[in-house]
Amino acid sequence: MGVELGANRLPFGRWIAPSILAGIALIPTVLAGSSSSQGIWEPPEMPSWALMVSLAILLGVYTLIVFEWVHRALAAALGAVVVVCVLHYIGDGPSLGTLVTWIDEETVGLLLGMMIMVSILSETGLFQWAAVKCYALSGGSVWRLVVILCLVTAVFSAFLDNVTTMLLIAPVTISLAKVLRLDPIPILLSEVMFSNIGGAATQIGDPPNIIIGAQLSPTALAGGPL
Question: What is the value of pTM for the model shown?
Answer without folding.
Answer: 0.60
